[in-house]
Amino acid sequence: MREICPVxxxxxxxxxxxxxxxxxxxxxxxxxINKKRxxxxxxxxxxxxxxxxxxxxxxxxxxxTNLIDDIKKGNxxxxxxxxxxxxxNLPDLTLLKKSCKTLSKIIKKNDIIFFESTVYPxxxxxxxxxxxxxxxxxxNKDFYVGYSPERINPGDKQKTLKSIPKIVAFKxxxxxxxxxxxxxxxxxxxxxxKNIIExxxxxxxxxxxxxxxxxxxxxxxxxxxxxxxxxxxxMSLAKTKWNFVPYEPGLVGGHCLPVDPYYFSYFAKSIGxxxxxxxxxxxxxxxxxxxxxxxxxxxxxxxSNLSEKRILVLGLTYKKNVADIRNSLAIKVLKKLxxxxxxxxxxxxxxxxxxxxxxxxxxxxxIKKYDVYIILNNHDxxxxxxKFILKKILITPFF
Length: 399
Ligand SMILES: NC(=O)c1ccc[n+]([C@@H]2O[C@H](COP(=O)([O-])OP(=O)(O)OC[C@H]3O[C@@H](n4cnc5c(N)ncnc54)[C@H](O)[C@@H]3O)[C@@H](O)[C@H]2O)c1
Known about the structure:
Elements: E1 6-9, H1 15-23, E2 29-31, H2 35-42, E3 63-65, H3 68-71, E4 76-79, H4 94-104, E5 112-115, H5 123-132, E6 144-147, E7 166-170, H6 176-183, E8 190-193, H7 196-226, H8 231-238, H9 260-270, H10 280-301, E9 311-314, H11 329-340, E10 345-347, E11 372-375, H12 386-389, E12 393-395
Parallel strand pairs: 1-2, 1-4, 2-3, 4-5, 5-6, 7-8, 9-10, 9-11, 11-12
Antiparallel strand pairs: 6-7
Residues 9-15, 31-34, 37, 80-83, 95, 98-99, 116-118, 150, 152, 154, 255-256 line the site of nicotinamide-adenine-dinucleotide.
């Protein structure tokens, strides 16, 4: 086989870390349709704020590109494009299909194509491969397909991509050597599977379990709060049992938990199965917006001379230590608060100020000027603010 030349398609929260690990070892091509993303990466700027300029230095003649011609040279394609839901919560595979269509025009004999985008079971076989076959090539003879569910946890500096066990599923053992060569550079621990559908399912199942468990703990938190039972103390007691899993309540957002249960429930429906529990985490977790907002309203009401006080809301991204704002419930809470308190200002060091003009984001130096601080997402960087925030009025719905 020719020298391996990986191409990563989609350089977002998932694709960029994969690309960066590979480009240290192979000439790797990083491709994205977003021209601004490519231009900023070429300037060593990651607007997702996951990487500092030093980490974006390229080696082995690797490149960032938005030109299809550049990816023709590749032979090991890894696809990490978004798979969101539509407004009616049905799977939206538009971008995934588009990337397959692009590949169908350029793949050659012996190429390997790995999908990392989260999908419902059977998408690789029934949606992606038929599009790739439009190339005129035969799967498993001319080109080979695999699926590797992505478990990266953006913002987590401990569980980095390299340390997370990586499942790689493919049908034909002929490609095992090359798959191993590539994926060994992405993760230290490879888990092999011969079944792509099982690997696709395992990904959505992991996230459904988490979504449901957080939903359960959110519900318990709500009951304790209303009944005046100290939730933290309850958790400390319950944790002393060996098989109790201490999930934390919170605002569930992002591109995974609010999406993946809908993917699997769509699949279940498509084969005639009515599910009862799969989506219950979704309902409870979304309703936390109202609960958290009313909790904050109550606390604000108890503050004397509130009309003279300046209020600052901190932490607006979907979870702590990330810049990702997709499905951020903190933003939804903020919008509700602003309906009642128009002058509320916001601060979040992870947001690009120019992109969120309507949020009235203040400068770091001005933080001290406020009287009431509402923290929706406890970014680690806020620890630095404690010395002056603690002397003021602090509202934290969860911590
Ligand atoms: N973000 C996470 O934490 C996470 C974790 C596990 C799995 N996933 C899954 O990984 C996939 C990617 O998610 P993400 O968070 O990296 O998304 P993202 O939006 O951060 O990045 C996707 C990138 O793909 C590009 N893109 C879209 N269509 C393209 C195309 N046809 N060709 C080339 N580039 C294209 C976009 O411009 C964007 O830069 C999704 O299926 C998601 O569910 C995400």
